[in-house]
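FORM 7B - TANDEM STRUCTURE REPORT

SECTION 1: FIRST PROTEIN
SEQUENCE AND TOKENS:
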Amino acid sequence: MDEIRGDEIRGKAQGTAPVPLSVLDLVTVGKGRTATQALRTGVEIAQLAERRGFHRYWVAEHHSMPGVASSSPAVILAHTAAHTERIRLGSGGVMLPNHAPLVIAEQFGTLEAMAPGRVDLGLGRAPGTDGATAAALRRTERLNEGADDFPQQLMELTRFLDDDFPDGHPYARIHAVPGPVQATSEGGVQSPGRPPLWLLGSSGFSARLAGMLGLPFAFAHHFSAQNTIPALELYRESFKPSAVLDAPYALIGVAALAADDEREARRQVLTGALSMLRLRSGRPGLVPTPEEAEAYAFSPMEREFVDSWLVNIVHGTADEVRTGLDDLAKRTGADELMITANAHGGEARLRSYGLIADAYGLPTA
């Protein structure tokens, strides 16, 4: 295995934050906004996060969702790498069953060559979309096969990244480039590192697998809060020390939005809740404006969904969000909090990350 150090995985808490803080960006597109604007906002968020001491910036693979422009994580990360210098960049995550492992090894080997020592490769086994879109991506109708084969795909990807298929394996003469093979070629010189692998999940499957393999684990608390503590406990119970980590390391994705007052925070998070309601109802679209969300006539069933969704979003003033994040870190024992701020406009999202950084006294440059 190419060298991966634990300090490339573990973050360091800044200011008064209880644990390292990071950013998960869905590159959301609001009504009246373009994907170009959303992607520019993503770069601005990454730059703000870098200035203020957030540990990493990740983007998540989604497909066929008009309000989410993060269908190509590797492309977005390459662009972001060109506009940042220090912050770790990664996928939160790449949905591995959608891709040939060799393709992902090549993409992230390229990213590692562009931004040495700054790239994380987070992997999930869900499609990141509906079944029909997943079938179009994978060119197969046998979607369960992809999820069931995830451990095998993960092992294949790892061997491509490390260039260590055993003699006699059908892929022994195939190499992911950029990658370790360049160091063994005549006159070749290659970086000794490669992107650390993370497993992502919203249930127990990836938690157990990450523990058994001694890998870091990221849990999707922002949309599966009821499973957070059981999954983290399973991860820690299953953990076996590896060449990557000598102890468990788990981050959780947290939906959080700070504003200058409680009412404005409520207006902003309601846009994301309505967007999620429409997605879950089979009507995905652009993120609505705060005015549209406030004026929407929710049915009793829709109101119940929205209320249950909002209860897991930490929102309010900066002090209220800080208190909520502190409590969440204490309750879950998470080693890192990865904050996603979903709202209609980029201004509100940028403002939120800045307010949270101020609340914790994070660095200003």
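SECTION 2: SECOND PROTEIN
SEQUENCE AND TOKENS:
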Amino acid sequence: MWPLYAAGFTTAFGAHGIAANLGGLSPDAVTSVMVLGGLLALYDGAEVLLKPLLGTLADRIGARPVLLGGLAAFAAASALYVLADSPGWLWAARLGQGAAASAFSPSAAALVARLNPAARHGRAFGSYGFYKSIGYTLGPLLGGVLMWVGGLRLLFAVLAVFGAAVALWCALAVPHVRPLPRARQTVVDVARRLAEPAFWRPTAALAGASAALSVGVGFLPVSGRAAGLGTVATGAAVSVLAACAAIVQPRAGRALDAGLLTAPAGISVGLLTTAAGVACAVLPGLTGVLLAAVLIGIGTGLITPLGFAALAASTPQARLGQTMGAAELGRELGDAGGPLLVAGAATLTTLAHGYAVLAVLLATGPVIALTTHRRPRGSHTGE
């Protein structure tokens, strides 16, 4: 499992390590805010388009070859900018990294499910999520240090070496898992399966968690600065958010495996906790920022391993790659949609109203499920 955890760390570190430091480039590489936004969107855009397709390919030819090919392509794309070192090739390298991550990220998640019995899925996905969270946490910090020491070329060089090393580790340690025989399916069959509650409910929860994480990372520093807090305090709050998510995920997975927690109940608690955290962001000063960071981290830490374990439990093993790719697509849409929703509401009113809109949206699903579950059986007949 360790090389798969390393693959999860690689995609998270590669995404945030560069994204957090692109704004510090010289004017010849990032000439405007629009250019910066395009470079940031390029990585995620490639993932949105390719993850479902490459997840399906993993089911067809096996997850291990797609994993190894994706890691090798990630190393090659990173090395491309090291060798070329020009603004034009930066776009190509970033696009290549995103396309490569689209291959090895869902493949790694599918292998986590295939290489562990169902009774250990919670723990396995909890540990996998923990190391991805560590990548998200350390990416901006280590990326900033590498940028300070040797510029963007050094950061890309480290990613190239790291990607190649993880690819070699996976080639040596990850066993070959044969693709399982699959019945033929049409586009209608795929749509029908992805429309089932067993798929879209965990996926919607994962998208909500990603939306809250993106909003927390992007907007809590804004709230902190508005309250007079310095960059150290706001940066520490974001680190607290990521640390809470990393700490909770393995514990949530172990609780699921031990029968102390069910996936639907844990996901509902996670969504309500996340909603409460987003709502706390409207409180003034350091108290609101810290409460928001802690609760968002705890809530998303609950949702992530339980959501993926629920998807693995409800999916035929021969379709795990396709399911994980589609679920990752949902996460990417939440990752982009959350900040857009809050920003749009804040533009029309205030940032506090933006937080409130997202909090209500996150809490709606669990509240509806709770009220439906508690409604008396005969209430619709007037009894």
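SECTION 3: OBSERVATIONS ON SECOND PROTEIN
The mean pLDDT is 81.
Residues 121-173 form the longest helix (53 residues).

SECTION 4: SIGNATURE
Preparer initials: ____
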